[in-house]
């Protein structure tokens, strides 16, 4: 219990004293503060003054609570959502439950569906930023075992019963992180912001700046599953490489990040829900699915076979897409 208490207190120390995070994480925290104050600053620089991250502008309404800032992990943590999800193309049994009963599988579509006026039933995973797990400093995250073999010790550390939903979610997340990537793919589970940035630099190159693209909700709703209509022509982000990072259910922030050598197309799409909600959603279309599992949920939802058609899906707001900073729309 003391361990959980110390993890929960870490963000307070950061806010009050600026301690516990390396320069990148602290600068990101300062960026969020500047966003809340309306600053136009959008860059994080390394110690040699080179831009390493180009952050998107904020559409936060200063007069009301918004989901438009997408690093809630820097806030307090008291619990985690055991229902989190991710996309694992090679191991569908890990990342997808029974899609016939679970509306969360309804997030796939084809590239031919990307036109104005197209209406689709879509699921967007919703999280409460005030209760979302935060990133730990790298030294603290590295000091905690991260292996399914050590799950019993981890459950005792975080005071979870072995048969609890949290325990089962932790096991699924650990096994997802231990799964081998498919051919032409690299993957990595980031347990700290610093490790995520290191992985990105390994993909894009040490001297290539990169920026973050995320889905932005323009209004708040508790509705996760409804019909959405494409309101404007999708805008493609011309990126030669991309890294997708999916949040995983865990007591502290963990992201499953992966990058593929095969062609992927990234889009920003303005969509509107039947309930009046509007969002600028990030969509990724995987142009080559020939290496995916034959049992991947997307093939069942779309009624296609692997390798026969590109598969597209939207990203919820707590998932991150990294692209080269010079990628244009």
From TrEMBL:
Write down the SMART domains for this protein, in alphabetical order.
Answer: BURP
What PROSITE patterns does this protein map onto? BURP
This protein's superkingdom? Eukaryota
Q: Please give the coiled-coil regions recorded for this protein.
A: none
Q: Name one Pfam family in it.
A: BURP
Query: InterPro entries in the record, alphabetically?
Result: BURP, BURP_dom
Q: Where are the transmembrane segments?
A: none
BURP domain mapped to chain residues:
108-325
Q: What is this protein called?
A: BURP domain protein USPL1 isoform X1
């Amino acid at each position: 219990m003391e361990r959980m208490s110390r993890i929960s207190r870490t963000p307070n120390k950061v806010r009050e004293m600026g301690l516990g995070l390396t320069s990148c994480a602290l600068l990101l925290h300062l960026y969020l503060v500047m966003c809340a104050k309306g600053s136009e600053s959008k860059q994080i620089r390394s110690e040699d003054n080179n831009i390493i991250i180009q952050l998107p502008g904020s559409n936060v309404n200063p007069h009301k609570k918004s989901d438009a800032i997408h690093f809630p992990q820097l806030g307090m943590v008291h619990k985690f959502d055991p229902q989190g999800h991710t996309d694992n193309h090679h191991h569908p049994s890990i990342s997808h439950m029974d899609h016939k009963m679970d509306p969360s599988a309804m997030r796939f579509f084809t590239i031919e569906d990307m036109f104005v006026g197209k209406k689709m039933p879509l699921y967007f995973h919703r999280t409460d930023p005030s209760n979302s797990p935060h990133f730990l400093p790298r030294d603290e995250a590295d000091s905690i075992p991260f292996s399914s073999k050590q799950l019993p010790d981890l459950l005792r550390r975080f005071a979870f019963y072995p048969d609890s939903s949290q325990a089962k979610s932790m096991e699924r997340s650990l096994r997802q992180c231990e799964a081998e990537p498919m051919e032409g793919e690299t993957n990595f589970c980031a347990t700290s912001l610093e490790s995520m940035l290191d992985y990105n630099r390994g993909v894009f190159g040490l001297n290539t700046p990169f920026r973050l693209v995320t889905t932005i909700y323009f209004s708040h709703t508790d509705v996760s599953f409804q019909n959405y209509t494409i309101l404007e022509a999708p805008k493609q982000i011309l990126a030669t490489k991309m890294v997708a990072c999916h949040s995983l259910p865990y007591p502290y922030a963990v992201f499953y990040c992966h990058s593929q050598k095969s062609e992927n197309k990234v889009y920003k799409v303005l969509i509107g829900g039947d309930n009046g909600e509007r969002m600028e959603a990030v969509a990724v279309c995987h142009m080559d699915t020939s290496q995916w599992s034959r049992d991947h949920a997307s093939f069942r939802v779309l009624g296609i076979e692997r390798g026969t058609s590109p598969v597209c899906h939207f990203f919820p707001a707590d998932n991150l897409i990294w692209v080269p900073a010079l990628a244009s729309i």
